[in-house]
Design a protein that fits this description.
mainly alpha
Length: 117
C-alpha cells in the first residue's frame, strides 16, 4: 500500500472518530463505540465457552469446534467476533493458547462517552 502512495500528488484522509484514553470519543455516531462493546462481549463469551468446554473434559479442538458452531448461530457483529476469536485461538501454540485465552478474559470495557459532531 505504501508503495502505491510513492507517486501520489495528494492524499485525502477521513477520520471517522477519535477516542482518548479517558474514554471520550468524538465521532459522527456511536457505531464504533458499539463495535468495541460487541468485541469485548464476544471475547468474554468466547473465553467463558472455551473454559467451560475444557472443564467438561473436551479437548481444545473440540472446544474450538463447539465455539465455531455457536459463532455461526450468533447473528451480527458478535457472531463475527466470536468466530474471529476462535480462529485466532486455533492458530496459537499450546503456551500461547492459554495466554491469549487469559487476555480475552481480562479485557475490560472502557467507559466510552460519545460526542457526535
Amino acid at each position: 500500500m505504501i508503495t502505491l502512495l510513492a507517486n501520489a500528488a495528494e492524499v485525502d484522509i477521513v477520520v471517522d472518530g477519535v477516542m482518548f484514553q479517558n474514554g471520550d470519543m468524538f465521532a459522527v455516531d456511536a457505531s464504533y463505540a458499539n463495535e468495541i462493546t460487541e468485541r469485548v462481549a464476544a471475547a468474554h463469551f468466547a473465553a467463558a465457552h472455551v473454559r467451560s468446554e475444557l472443564a467438561r473434559g473436551k479437548t481444545k479442538p473440540q472446544a474450538l469446534e463447539s465455539l465455531s458452531t455457536l459463532a455461526r448461530s450468533t447473528f451480527g457483529k458478535r457472531g463475527e467476533w466470536i468466530n474471529t476469536f476462535g480462529n485466532t485461538l486455533s492458530g496459537r501454540s499450546e503456551q500461547m493458547f492459554d495466554a491469549y485465552l487469559a487476555s480475552m478474559e481480562r479485557l475490560k470495557l472502557p467507559g466510552i462517552t460519545v460526542h457526535t459532531y
